Amino acid sequence: MIYIHRNWALIPEQLKDDLRKAAAELDAIEDPKARKAYILANQGKWSAVRDYLGKMSHRKCWYSEAPESV
């Protein structure tokens, strides 16, 4: 298992602001079906940080330390 230093400075402020707003909107939705629909409709927002998180982990799995394959 490896330690991953989360360097939030790598993620642009605009993207972090968009994610904060989306998280707040999601928190306000109580109906499970509506929450799922919101998550699906906003997939691009959540996956926008994937590359940044990959850089932070040196493209390795935090648990097995195997190189990311997907």
Structure description:
- The chain is mainly α.
- Helices cover 53% and strands 0% of the residues.
- The chain contains 4 helices and no strands.
- It is globular and about 35 Å long.
- The two termini are 19 Å apart.
The major pleated sheet works out as: none
Helix content: 40-55%
Tell me the overall shape: globular
Rg computed from alpha carbons, rounded to a whole number of angstroms: 14 Å
Show unreliable segments. none
Judged by helices, strands and strand pairing, the structural class is mainly alpha
The separation of the N and C termini measures 19 Å
Number of beta-strand segments? 0
The total of helices stands at 4
Mean pLDDT across all amino acids:
91
H/E element string? HHHH
- Share of β-strand residues: under 5%
Counting copies of identical and different chains, the oligomeric state is single chain
Characteristic key phrases:
70 residues; mainly alpha; 53% helix
Compile the SSE list and pairings.
Layout: H1 13-27, H2 32-41, H3 43-47, H4 50-56
Task: Summarize the model shown.
The protein is 53% helix and 0% strand.
